[in-house]
Fold each of these.
Amino acid sequence: AQSVTQPDIHITVSEGASLELRCNYSYGATPYLFWYVQSPGQGLQLLLKYFSGDTLVQGIKGFEAEFKRSQSSFNLRKPSVHWSDAAEYFCAVASNFGNEKLTFGTGTRLTIIP
Amino acid sequence: ETGVTQSPTHLIKTRGQQVTLRCSSQSGHNTVSWYQQALGQGPQFIFQYYREEENGRGNFPPRFSGLQFPNYSSELNVNALELDDSALYLCASSLAGRVNTGELFFGEGSRLTVL
């Protein structure tokens, strides 16, 4: 069964500083990997996704993520955070065939301080 | 703004009652998935509907059931409510064959509190 681990429950970063959110997955084959963001009281918005090819993927709002098969990781990065980036971030994995359900991690809450 | 609308946004029920949550999918989308998000947790897949048929189910008991209508809107029904059913219920719409490309469009959810 596929699973996702986000080891950091809460991260606090100063505005303008760099950010890295960690995600480790467990899946037997090549996974489909995603990062979603959830602002308070909102649904989830897709930031970026990885299926194959270039292991560094670019997303919206200046985010990027790197797929490292050897480490079973898909960490999310941003070089300079803005106050509006404060939100909950979820990593998710899906199988690449059949029933397409997303398995989400427990999320990382990002707080931005001035 | 994803074009996916859910109702009601908030509701309170008591144990043993039944609840129906509704979702209107984005225009042109024929697949609807439902997720349960408990407080402090990530969303968990409940089930998916495609062309009015259930097309996959997560680890949820049969008292969680759903419907999809010809216009692709959907309902989630939960019978015999338990306290642990308190959660944010998220609906996501997509176009068939594209779900596992991550192109899910989520509504803002229905927050259910069971007392």
Amino acid sequence: GIQVEQSPPDLILQEGANSTLRCNFSDSVNNLQWFHQNPWGQLINLFYIPSGTKQNGRLSATTVATERYSLLYISSSQTTDSGVYFCAVGGYNQGGKLIFGQGTELSVKP
Amino acid sequence: DADVTQTPRNRITKTGKRIMLECSQTKGHDRMYWYRQDPGLGLRLIYYSFDVKDINKGEISDGYSVSRQAQAKFSLSLESAIPNQTALYFCATAGTGWETQYFGPGTRLLVL
């Protein structure tokens, strides 16, 4: 099955700093989503981005499908950005199932 | 998303008890999924359903069963709960094709 690796596993930032989170996957995909899990455990959809680039406020994401990676950019980080960021992918033969990476735990300090 | 609801939100039970977690959605989606999250880990798929008559096992289905009562409802049962089923459980929905999955708020289950 598809393998998903996220890096770094942990990240500590000062408020206002920028960061880049990476997601590598081992096979072709037709679904890639980024999620933010807040400290209360809720999963929040950030991007559906199997290819290309999207931006939403201070967040943006780029997926290079041919090279099997995706990047999530967080600019001018805020303490409310803290939590775990997950990348999840679905392959052509996965029947709509998502395979999750292990996540990047982000802590933004004031 | 408020369009996907899970009940209960928190549950404590004892080893050997049968419990049911429920998921409802108002998004009109055909596909529904149950995932489990253990501390410090990503989510793993337990069961999924593409319509009322289609139920499929995920990667960790042992010890679980599901019921798709209607397009909008998908329930997960633990037939005889054990402590290592203590986890955060998520329900998700998606439309047909390769679309965004939307997750419910999760159910925290503690098995003593």
